[in-house]
Amino acid sequence: MKYKAFIGIGSNLGVPAENCEKAIRLLKGTAKIEVVAQSCLYESEPVGKADQNWFVNAVVAIRTSLTAEALLDTVLTIEKDLGRERREKWGPRIIDLDLLAYENHVTSSIDLTLPHPEMTKRRFVLLPLSEFAGDYLHPVENKTIYDLLQELPQTPQVKKISR
Fold it and tell me: Residue 20's CB: how many other CB atoms inside 10 A?
């Protein structure tokens, strides 16, 4: 069976837009993953640690036969292949791939929490996600992506930069 999942993508080191595009290409080239939708690229103010470069963000929707745990392992491998080093929480990064949601699964373990616990608070996630999944019903909040987006303040800023 193929599941639908959403993956958030971000970068603020090197050439961030190119890093995001590389990550998307790697996802597209991965066995058992089919990218079925892709947002535009957005530029966003950093969250949590303000004294760093702005981020470039995007979201993709995928279909996969991988379990949520196997999908998480796959995206972590892609991060590593692109040079990701985990140094500080909310710090600068060459690439960041977050498993945002996996169907309507709700789970919490040491390695994986679904849906992503911060996604409802992040305009840089909800705005790109709303391009193709605005009617997705968040399984914990019981609200659509559109509704969640409307509840967020306009800051930190998020601006569309492509497509």
Answer: 25
